[in-house]
Structure formats: structure tokens, C-alpha cells
Amino acid sequence: MNNVTELVSGRGEWLKTRETDDGIVISSRIRLARNLCGFPFLNRCSESERSEIQSLVMTALNGSELAKDYFYVELENLGPLEKELLVERHLISRQHANTEGPRGVALLADETVSIMVNEEDHLRMQVLGGGFQLDKIWQRLNCLDDQLENRLEFAYHEQFGYLTACPTNVGTGIRVSVMMHLPALKITGEIERVFRAARDMRLAVRGLYGEGTEATGDFYQISNQCTLGKTEEEIVEDFRSTVVPRISDYELRARELLRREKPALVEDKVWRAIGMLKYARTINTQETLTLLSYIRLGLNMGLINDVDIETINDLFLSSQPAHLQIISAKRMDSDLRSKLRAEFIRRRLCDHQNN
Amino acid sequence: MLCQKCKKHAATVHLTEIINNEKQEKHLCEQCAAMDGITGSIGHVPIKGHVQQIMAKFVMSQPEVKETSQLTCDECGMTFLQFRNGGLLGCPNDYEAFKTPLAGLLEKAHEGRTQHVGKIPGGRENKHKRQHAMMRLTRELQDAVDLEDYERAANLRDQIKGLERQ
Ligand SMILES: [Zn+2]
Ligand SMILES: [Zn+2]
Predict the structure, then answer these.
(1) Phi and psi at residue A34, to the nearest 5°
(2) pLDDT tens digits for chain A (355 residues)?
(3) Which residue in A168, A235, A284, A315 has the most chain B C-beta atoms within 10 A of its own C-beta, making it the best mutation to test that interface?
(4) Do A88 and B39 touch (CB under 8 A)?
(5) What is the ipTM of this complex?
(6) CA triplet A18, A19, A24: central angle to 5 degrees?
(7) A73 — phi, psi (to 5°)?
(8) Does A275 touch chain B (CB under 8 A)?
(9) Which residues from B are below 8 Å from A42, CB to CB?
(10) How many other CB atoms sit within 10 Å of the CB of residue A118?
């Protein structure tokens, strides 16, 4: 096992939930885009310029607070499955995995920090945390940015701020995003409220959901689009005091409504999900997502307590294709993966109960 | 429901995106979703397509198109037309080189705002001026070396050293 494949046996810090959380925000992330001056943006960089950027960044990292703890992964040295693993764990983007040339990612073993080098911009630094904790994340990222800035010269313009390859990121280069779990709004048919709110607040939304009219698997990533003409703190504060409380409130009300008016409906969904995952003999990723979502809802509504939420959070990650193949140390087609996935989940859920 | 892309397999992956206030739904089979990089997971992914959407709606008049598509950055050689087609700029200087046509686009992308008010790199107010000079000098140096104009190259090297010392 190397540094990368070892990640499967760890549990990213951000998967842990905190006591104070209502479980609606699964994770919070902030990233900054930066480019080094004296170099063109990546689409105009030669191989040697890319290598030079990589070594400049590593030198800067070696002088930062991360020096002792980070490890750098050159993507050119990784096999396809290992790259896929990093994508599944959200440490690199798919684009970063699929393009070519000298590029990589600096990581902390607890997976809270990832710095992609030579993605769309020279640097894409992200800090990730479990639950809703944007202030803390911003402080950490800001501090990391300062430290790198002392050692690197970032492209900056008096009017446009930090210059990025895509003009939609220019200015602060900040992208704040929260991953929200909104199954009750889907069941009550009110998810449109979230879309309307997002439009009002000019946010981007990306939602993934399962099959059927009463579908679930309802995870919505909500992020800012405007990066110029607002301070980083204003953008973070919008999320902290407006965006997240407003959407969380919709979901909490929907959960209350279900508890009051259709308790049997929700309980049935939750228990069926547990039953399916404990007894299924073959299952695809989509169905897994749907069922895990119900179990998560059941836990957060206090309907069940015989599974812990960290196990469920972890299963979202480890039931993905590259994870399964690395855990079992062999390549498998999708039928075989579905069989192994069912087995893997069953074992994790039953193990837990026997403890 | 059939997969929107291959129209063969059943759609099992359902995605709703709102980008730039436009809602889009995607219904794909597992294979097509995987090819598009959509996995059944709970991770944060980059929001793509934002600039393309703005660009598509960004209609310029004919004379304007003619004029701006010929704009070229003298530091990296990028033309405005190439940017329009690809959506990505070639170097930091493009923000100056394409300042006029970019203005409208930046306004649309950033709620009408055009002036950065966020973080300023610590203690280096003048660095942004230096960075432009540095790129131009490096490029000129390369040209001088290519043309075997060693006197000029030596001169440029001195200027670069001077800038670095500042
Ligand atoms: Zn398909
Ligand atoms: Zn340029």
C-alpha cells in the first residue's frame, strides 16, 4: 500500500459529524484559485513550465505549516484506479485526473486539505470539514494562503484581484460550497423552494437524486457564483447567516411535517432501506445512495439508533467503484462490483450490530 | 425513462443543476453518467459551464465582433476569438489585453460588480505592475536569444535582475 491506497482504510476527518450538527449539512468546503505570476495560465504552459510550477509550489509548501504533514502525489505516477480513488474521495477533480502533463495534489492524511497543482489554475487549494463549519475552514484556508503567498508571487491586478484562467473565478478566487442532505423536502414535494431560494440568492445548485416520484438520495451542493466585488468574509457570511439557515429551515419544517402527518411513511422507508441493505445480494451505486440517504434521514430524525452516522457517511464513499476494487485488490466489472458492494455493506451494517 | 444520452439504457442517475439561474435536468444511465464524471456520491464538484452559459447569451454587434476577435495578447499570443471558443484565458495579461470585451462578461458573471474588494497580497502594492513587466521582459529575452541579439539579451537580463531585487 502507498500513501494513496492507504486512504481507503482511513476515515476522512470531514466524515465525522459533530454533536451540534442537525446533520443537514454533510460537509463544508472552501477553495481558492491562484496563479503564479511570470507564467502563462495552464492552457498556454509548456511541459517544462508545468514542472517548474510544481517544484515552486512544493518548495513553498516545505516552508509552510504543512511542511511536516503533507504528502505530494504526482498524478503522472499513478495508475487509473488510484486516480479514480482520489476523485471518489473528492481530493482531486475528475478533470485533474483525466488531463495530462506534470500535475499533482498535495494532501494531508486526514483529508482536510488538498492543493491541486496545475488543474485549471496553477493552484486550487481547498479545505474541507464535516458538518457546517465555514468560519473555521475559512480561517484555516486564509492562513494557508498567506503562508504560500509569502513564498510565491500570485498573479494579482488592482482592479480584478487575483487573476484566474476563467473570468468567472476572478477577484477573490473563492468558491464556498456546502453539501446538504434534503430528503424530507423531496418527499413532501417542496424541493422547488430550494431552487427558488438559490435563484434569489444567485447561487449554483447541483442536486443528485434517485429513482421515482418519491425519490431520495437527495444531496444538494450549493455554491456561490460571484467572486468579484465582494470580500471573502462577505461571501462566507452570506452562507453562514442566510443561505444555510434558510434552506435548513425548509428541511427541518418538512421533517416536522412528516413526523406529524406521515410518521408511518418515513419509518417504513427507513426500515425498508435497512432491510434492503442488510439482505441484498447485488446492488448498484445509485440504489445504494438512495437507501443510505433514507437511513441517514432516520438517524437524524431519531427514528433509529442501531447504526452510527459515521458508518453511513463512510459507506457513501467506500461503496464507490474504485474503493471496492482497491479494498478487494482486484479489477472487477460492474456486475461483480454490485455483488461485492452488497456483501461489503451487509458486513459493515451487521458487524456494527454485533458490537 | 430512457437515458438522454445513449437512448438505450434506463436512466438511473438524475441530476438537477442551477447555474446562472438556469435550471437543467439530466437523466442518464450509469455508464453515460460515469463518462460525464457524475458518480453516485456526496462530494463537492466544480461547477462547470458557467462561463459558457454567460458567453452564449453574450451577444455582440457585428462590428464589435470583428474588432474584438482580432485582439491579441502580446505576452502569450492568445486571441479574443480563441478565448471565446475555449472559455479560458491564456495569461494574466489577457485581463488587460481584452479589457474592453471582458468588461461586459465580468459584469454578467459577478452581479454587475467590476472592482475587487477582497484580499490584497500582503505588503506588495506595486507587485502587480512588476509582474506585467516581468512577463514582457522574459518574453523579449526569449526573442532576443532566438535572434542571437546577445547585447540586447544581456541588457534585458539586467533589467529582469533589477526587477527581482525590488
Ligand atoms: Zn446512457
Ligand atoms: Zn496573454
Answers:
(1) -140, 150
(2) 467 888 887 777 777 766 567 789 999 999 999 999 999 999 999 999 999 999 999 999 999 988 999 999 999 999 999 999 998 888 999 889 999 999 999 999 889 999 999 999 999 999 999 889 999 999 999 999 999 999 999 999 999 999 999 999 999 999 999 999 999 998 898 988 998 999 899 999 988 765 554 444 688 999 999 999 999 999 999 999 999 999 999 999 999 999 999 999 999 999 999 999 999 999 988 889 889 999 999 999 999 988 888 889 889 888 988 999 999 888 899 899 999 999 999 999 987 554 4
(3) A168
(4) yes
(5) 0.89
(6) 65
(7) -115, 120
(8) no
(9) 88
(10) 24
Helix (H) or strand (E) holding A178, with range, is strand A174-181
Q: Which three cell numbers stand for residue B45?
A: 464538484
Phi, psi values for residue B73, rounded to 5°: -80, 125
Could you tell me the maximum CA-CA distance found in chain A, to the nearest angstrom? 64
Region for A208 from its dihedrals, namely left if φ exceeds 0, alpha if ψ lies in -120 to 50, beta otherwise: beta
Task: Give the closest-approach CA distance of A328 to chain B in angstroms.
Answer: 20
Nearest to A276 by CA among A262, A292, A299, A264: A292
Separation CA A59–CA A53 (nearest Å): 10
Q: How far apart are CA B144 and CA A32, in angstroms?
A: 37
User: d(Cα B14, Cα B16) in Å, to the nearest integer?
Assistant: 7
CB within 8 A of A1, min separation 6: which ones? none
Q: Which three cell numbers stand for residue A333?
A: 466489472
Q: Which fold has domain A4-255?
A: Creatine Kinase; Chain A, domain 2 (3.30.590)
Rounded CA gap, A150 and A65, in Å?
12
> Which residues in chain B have their CB less than 8 angstroms from residue A90's CB?
41, 43-45
